[in-house]
């Protein structure tokens, strides 16, 4: 089944809402506001590809966090499959955080 651009946009918004429920356990801010999600691509068939990073390659949740993201996104209505790519290029830095995240962490 092919989805319209509007349907894809709705699925995308739902995915972002779900991503905002996933937290880095060491930082009280969700991974979306932290800037750990580099890209979310959704095909016409609702196959989803997420490109994300972690705050450091040695992050204690390197094994579990990507799987949690994948599992939660897979539960979004109409999502057919989720391909998650973990990258450290470019490496994450605090400038990638949203203003909201910086405010939460007292950086503003």
Summary keywords:
108 residues; alpha+beta; GMP Synthetase, Chain A, domain 3; three-stranded mixed sheet; globular; SUF system Fe-S cluster assembly protein; SUF_FeS_clus_asmbl-assoc; Fe-S_Maturation_MIP18
Quick one: biggest sheet? 3 strands, mixed
Q: Provide the CATH topology.
A: GMP Synthetase, Chain A, domain 3
How many domains make up the 3D coordinates?
1
CATH architecture: 2-Layer Sandwich
What fraction of the residues are assigned to beta strands by DSSP? 15-25%
Q: Explain this structure to me?
A:
- The chain is an alpha+beta fold and 108 residues long.
- It has a single domain (5-90), classed as GMP Synthetase, Chain A, domain 3, CATH 3.30.300.130.
- The chain contains four helices and three strands; from the N terminus they run ααββαβα.
- The protein has helices at residues 5-19, 31-34, 64-74, 99-104; strands spanning 37-42, 47-52, 81-86.
- A three-stranded mixed beta sheet has the order 1-2-3.
Quick synopsis:
The chain has 108 residues and is of the alpha+beta class. 33% of the residues lie in helices and 17% in strands.
SSE blueprint:
Blueprint: H1 5-19, H2 31-34, E1 37-42, E2 47-52, H3 64-74, E3 81-86, H4 99-104
Parallel strand pairs: 2-3
Antiparallel strand pairs: 1-2
């Amino acid at each position: 089944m092919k989805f319209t651009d509007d349907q894809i946009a709705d699925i995308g918004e739902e995915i972002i809402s779900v991503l905002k429920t996933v937290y880095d356990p060491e930082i009280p801010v969700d991974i979306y506001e932290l800037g750990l999600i580099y890209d979310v691509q959704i095909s016409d068939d609702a196959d989803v590809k997420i490109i994300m990073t972690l705050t450091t390659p040695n992050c204690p949740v390197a094994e579990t966090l990507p799987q949690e993201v994948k599992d939660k996104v897979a539960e979004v209505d109409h999502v057919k499959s989720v391909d998650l790519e973990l990258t450290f290029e470019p490496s994450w830095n605090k400038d990638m955080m949203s203003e909201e995240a910086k405010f939460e962490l007292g950086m503003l």
